[in-house]
Automatic annotation (TrEMBL), chain A:
Keywords assigned: Periplasm, Signal
Leader sequence segment: 1-33
UniProt-recorded name of the protein: Extracellular solute-binding protein
Protein source organism: Microvirga aerilata
Keyword Signal: yes
Xref: Pfam families: SBP_bac_8
PANTHER family the UniProt entry points to: SPERMIDINE/PUTRESCINE-BINDING PERIPLASMIC PROTEIN, SPERMIDINE_PUTRESCINE-BINDING PERIPLASMIC PROTEIN
Automatic annotation (TrEMBL), chain B:
Protein location: Cell membrane
Protein name listed in UniProt: ABC transporter permease
Family assignment from sequence similarity: Belongs to the binding-protein-dependent transport system permease family. CysTW subfamily.
Membrane-spanning ranges: 12-40, 72-93, 105-127, 156-178, 199-224, 256-279
Key words of the record: Cell membrane, Membrane, Transmembrane, Transmembrane helix, Transport
Pfam families hit by this protein: BPD_transp_1 (PF00528)
PROSITE patterns named among the record's database cross-references: ABC_TM1 (PS50928)
GO annotation (BP), single: transmembrane transport
């Protein structure tokens, strides 16, 4: 190699490096992120069965998925005491946890301009508008902290052959006709709130906001539940997915406060279970992916933003809708039918799920309060109900 | 004292000291921390160091105290039940089974533990349910015309779950105690004219009490802090202390969870102190130590 060529190469190299460094310095948010591994802590719902190829091919980064519990304490304990801030880059959990997460400096506000899939997402525009109840699932104090990865509306399930027809009110959970054949979820923010929805709609208790009750209001709700418990209305208070599915499959109960995927699971086992459309409305909720606060290089931060953006993509949405039965992305049904990644039957299933959940959101209801203002009173009262 | 003896003593001290220190770190430190935190003040999400009896006051004043009472009753009564059945099994293994089969039988007792504990508990829920095999059998046999509700999600189911979970653990210390009894004492009792029941009550039972008490502690501790059995088989919010502590942790009420844990640990320590006060540990450990 001649000296001239050496000098040329050196000059070129130095010039290139200078340009690159200058570019990075000018726009650190667009740090060149390749070869990064983003650790995503997930409660199990956001796992596309390990297939992150869409993200990995597009970015050159990898995903390290780890499991995390969904209970508020499980999440906070992992982040505060369990070294989660150092280990996790993103946590994907049921939203509405911003207050404890932000006040403990565990998550970062999002710069949504770095998420191209955030723009033109009609679900975000419709359901998570700042100032709305839906915004409380992803935002706090006017700032956005979470990327909504799935959306759903909850009600209750029933076995029509056993109940003798359609049920369309949460009142079925408390109907003496089904005494001893009703199950509730062991969760004050779901079972408690559904009961409040019923009591308010039936005019039995004066409740201003079922999603965020005062101490007196939650006490009245629990008084009602205790009365029903003593009358023998409830067979069991369930606490896990498998337990709830088995209750339906074994026909241990006929009416059950639960999540819709449990109905899918029961149907898959040959049981004719129906997920009700109550006149009082659905309990709406969403999962949110948060950026964990921690020492992170610009490259890792960029790779994390890229993953958040991928989780907002129609491709990821279609996969998750198909696997988990939740609504995800407005463009997921179209992607499923046109991309060639799904067979027509699966594409139709994705479109049906999307349409079904959309109907729930259109028919209304209240957003679940994951961290209500009086959460201590909720927990105390729920203890009273269980101990009664 | 020679240098060799000094070196040997130092070696022994290090050899014993390290595990003792590790045990202290792993057991004593968390317990002390739990005790300290139980007096701290709860803030909205975290807690603040201090000295407050608020958590204890709330515990003894609220619904959780009834959970403590129920836990105590369930743990005590189920322990008595388990002791009766474990003693019978241990007695049969020790005195009625040929020595060549003892190991096989003891091994069989440990087989259930090869299956995950929660899965075993879920299996009970399936077996005892309204449409489960037991109810189907009872109806098929004409013993009942409709499913029996109280088989599942009831006190009966919880007791059954506890017995299945902890009774096998209790067989081992009782068997250990029984097999350590010098057979010549039993023979002497017979030769002196004591009938079998008298020999059992005056010789075998008193000598096996250290094992019985050890077994009682195993059973009581397990039942007192149980979470899964009460949750899966108990029905509408059947709560034991383990469930109540978990519930407090769910809303990050660490001082309350610590206060409840302290009360539970206090009860356990009291039991252990009673055991140490009334029984010579060497009687129980003698068999294991080959003495």
């Amino acid at each position: 190699m001649s000296n001239e060529l050496k000098q040329f190469n050196r000059r070129t190299l130095l010039a290139g490096a200078a340009v690159g460094a200058g570019a990075l310095a000018l726009r650190p948010s667009a740090a060149f992120a390749v070869g990064q591994t983003v650790t995503l802590a997930d409660i199990g719902v956001g796992d596309p069965n390990g297939d992150w190829s869409g993200y990995e091919k597009a970015t050159g980064n990898k995903v390290n998925l780890v499991s995390i519990g969904n209970g508020p304490s499980a999440v906070l304990n992992q982040l505060i005491a369990g070294g989660g801030r150092q280990t996790y880059d993103i946590i994907n959990i049921v939203g509405g946890m911003q207050k404890p997460l932000v006040e403990n400096k565990l998550i970062l506000p999002l710069d949504t301009s770095r998420l191209k899939n955030w723009q033109n997402n009609e679900y975000i525009a419709s359901y998570f508008k700042p100032g709305s109840k839906g915004f409380d699932f992803i935002g706090y104090d006017g700032k956005v902290y979470g990327v909504p990865t799935i959306l759903q509306g909850d009600s209750f399930a029933y076995l029509p052959e056993k109940t003798g027809g359609e049920l369309n009110s949460y009142g079925a959970l408390f109907d003496p006709k089904f005494r001893g054949y009703v199950a509730l979820e062991d969760n004050y923010t779901t079972a408690g709130q559904k009961t409040a929805l019923y009591l308010k709609a039936a005019g039995l208790v004066d409740i201003k906001d079922p999603s965020n009750m005062t101490k007196e209001e939650i006490k009245k709700v629990v008084d009602f539940l205790i009365q029903k418990k003593k009358e023998g209305q409830f067979r069991v208070v369930w606490s896990s997915f498998e337990q709830a599915v088995n209750l339906l499959v074994n026909q241990e109960v006929y009416v059950m406060d639960c999540w819709e995927p449990m109905v899918f699971a029961a149907k898959a086992k040959g049981v004719n279970a129906v997920y009700a459309s109550p006149k009082e409305g659905f309990l709406l909720w969403a999962m949110a992916a948060y950026l964990v606060a921690g020492n992170r290089s610009p490259e890792k931060l960029e790779a994390s933003y890229q993953l958040l953006d991928f989780m907002l993509s129609p491709e990821y949405g279609a996969v998750i809708t198909n696997l988990r039965g939740y609504m995800t992305n407005p463009a997921a049904p179209e992607f499923a039918s046109k991309s060639g990644k799904f067979d027509p039957v699966t594409a139709k299933k994705i479109a049906d799920i999307d349409a079904g959940v959309k109907t729930k959101f259109q028919s209304g209801g209240t957003w679940q309060a994951r961290w209500p203002s009086n959460i201590e009173a909720y927990e105390e009262e729920w203890q009273r109900f269980k101990a009664a | 004292m020679s240098a060799a003896v000094k070196r040997r003593d130092l070696g022994a001290a290090v050899l014993l000291g390290v595990p003792v220190l590790l045990c202290a770190l792993a057991i004593v430190v968390p317990l002390v921390l739990t005790l300290i935190i139980s007096f701290w003040e709860r803030q909205m999400i975290g807690m603040r160091p201090g000295f407050s009896l608020a958590s204890y006051a709330l515990f003894f004043d609220g619904a959780r105290f009834s959970v403590l009472q129920r836990s105590f009753w369930v743990a005590t009564s189920s322990t008595l039940l388990m002791l009766a059945s474990a003693y019978l099994v241990a007695y049969l293994i020790t005195f009625k089974l040929p020595p060549s089969r003892t190991r096989i039988f003891l091994f069989l007792l440990s087989v259930p533990f090869l299956v995950n504990y929660v899965i075993r508990t879920f299996s009970w829920a399936y077996l005892l349910g309204r449409t489960g095999p037991l109810n189907q059998f009872l109806q098929w046999a004409g013993l009942t015309s409709h499913p029996i509700d109280w088989l599942l999600f009831s006190d009966f189911a919880v007791y059954l779950g506890l017995v299945a979970a902890y009774m096998p653990f209790m067989v081992y210390p009782i068997w250990l105690s029984l097999s350590a009894i010098d057979r010549r004492l039993i023979e002497a009792s017979w030769m002196l004219g004591e009938p079998p029941l008298g020999t059992f009550l005056k010789v075998v039972l008193p000598l096996s009490l250290p094992g019985v008490f050890a077994a009682a502690i195993f059973g009581f501790v397990g039942a007192f802090g149980e979470v899964a059995v009460s949750q899966i088989l108990g029905g509408v919010g059947y709560q034991l202390m383990g469930n109540a502590i978990t519930s407090s942790l769910d809303v990050l009420n660490y001082p309350m969870a610590a206060a409840m844990s302290t009360v539970v640990v206090g009860c356990m320590l009291l039991l252990l102190l009673l055991w140490l006060r009334f029984f010579d540990l060497r009687l129980f450990l003698g068999k294991m130590l080959g003495r």
